[in-house]
């Protein structure tokens, strides 16, 4: 259990409660549901027309830490098999930037800082985290369930003309993303908006959402 204090003086306690409900048991029987942590779904939306860079950005790959080479190679193979990335030839190129997660696993991100600088703006729709905390504090409920949508960005399809700008190179082969990439400045806003729209269409219970995290 962790406790934190925000600028307005509210105290927040965070912990994990292991609750096994009949609904969870039934979910686990669905075929193909969360087969493994690397599994990627596909959101049923139109291919997204995202802002395109105003000029070509080409950056060489950095030297990659030895510990990351095998995990990243395996990850790219898995993503290619699932159609998330594919081989390409593009004048754009950004370097892979592997990030080690707290559990020791690696996350495949690309350093899109240079690309972000020449990408047109997009109206942000992501809510302020502190405002969400204050909204939670105002509710009568004492217990909440949290849902973290796995690989949410990778489930959002991109339009063909938007893909070349996201190219990266690994082991002499150039790839690009067919889905929304991590590390690009507009990915959180686009992801938040699409998930918000999906929740509004359905019969979701009262909830709060922050990008791919949902509290009910």
Mean pLDDT: 76
Beta-strand residue percentage:
5-15%
CATH H-level superfamily: HIV Type 1 Reverse Transcriptase, subunit A, domain 1
Biggest sheet: strand arrangement? 3-8-7
Termini Cα gap: 20 Å
SS elements, strand count: 10
What portion of residues is helical?
10-25%
Describe this protein's structure.
It is a single chain. The chain is of the alpha+beta class and 216 residues long. 24% of the residues lie in helices and 15% in strands. The protein has 5 helices and 10 strands, in the order ββααβββααβββαββ. It has helices spanning 22-27, 66-81, 113-117, 129-137, 187-201; strands at residues 2-5, 11-14, 85-87, 99-100, 106-107, 146-148, 168-170, 173-177, 208-210, 213-215. The longest helix has 16 residues, at 66-81. Residues 1-6 and 10-19 have low confidence and may be disordered. This is ribonuclease H. Belongs to the beta type-B retroviral polymerase family. HERV class-II K(HML-2) pol subfamily.
Short description:
The chain is an alpha+beta fold and 216 residues long. The protein has helices at residues 22-27, 66-81, 113-117, 129-137, 187-201; strands at 2-5, 11-14, 85-87, 99-100, 106-107, 146-148, 168-170, 173-177, 208-210, 213-215.
Please render the helix and strand layout as text:
Layout: E1 2-5, E2 11-14, H1 22-27, H2 66-81, E3 85-87, E4 99-100, E5 106-107, H3 113-117, H4 129-137, E6 146-148, E7 168-170, E8 173-177, H5 187-201, E9 208-210, E10 213-215
Antiparallel strand pairs: 1-2, 3-8, 4-5, 6-10, 7-8, 9-10
């Amino acid at each position: 259990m962790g406790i934190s204090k925000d600028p307005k003086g509210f105290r927040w306690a965070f912990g994990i409660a292991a609750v096994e409900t009949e609904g969870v048991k039934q979910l686990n029987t669905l075929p193909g549901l969360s087969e493994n942590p690397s599994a990627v779904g596909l959101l049923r939306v139109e291919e997204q027309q995202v802002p395109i860079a105003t000029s070509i950005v080409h950056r060489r790959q950095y030297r990659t830490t030895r510990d990351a080479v095998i995990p990243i190679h395996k990850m790219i193979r898995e993503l290619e098999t699932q159609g998330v990335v594919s081989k390409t030839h593009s004048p754009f190129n950004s370097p892979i930037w592997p990030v080690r997660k707290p559990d020791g696993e690696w996350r495949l991100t690309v350093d899109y800082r240079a690309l972000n600088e020449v990408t047109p703006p997009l109206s942000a729709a992501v809510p302020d985290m502190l405002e969400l905390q204050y909204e939670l504090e105002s509710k009568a409920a004492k217990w909440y369930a949290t849902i973290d949508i796995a690989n949410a960005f990778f489930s959002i399809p991109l339009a063909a003309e938007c893909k070349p700008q996201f190219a990266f190179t690994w082991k002499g082969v150039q790839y690009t993303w067919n889905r929304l990439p991590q590390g690009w400045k507009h990915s959180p806003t686009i992801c938040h908006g699409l998930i918000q729209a999906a929740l509004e269409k359905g019969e979701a219970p009262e909830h709060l959402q922050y990008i791919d995290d949902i509290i009910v």
